[in-house]
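Researcher: Please translate sequence to structure tokens.
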Amino acid sequence: MPDLTHQRCLNHMFREAVARCPECGRFFCRECITEHDDKVLCASCLRKRLKPAGHRFHRYQWIFCGGHFFTGVVLLYIIFYYFAQILLALPTSFHEGTLWQTGWWSQP
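Model: Translation complete:
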């Protein structure tokens, strides 16, 4: 393995390397290297380290989401059921359109 004094920066070929990234093992100049959590890392390794992990649902969260879905379906069923009961309670003359022709509102 060559000595650090003879190495050049991976991104800037005319600059002398001042540090080696412990993650990927490449050499970088002062401009390309960053200190994070008392470690000297290159930009690509730092990006990988800081990339947020995907959100994972735990077992109870899936049960909670399923409960919400089931509650929503039951609530919609109840709403449609009672709406249908209201429509069934209306007189047949309302459904046929003859209710408006009889003048039911003017009778005492």
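Researcher: Any highlights?
Model: The chain has two domains: 4-50, 54-92.
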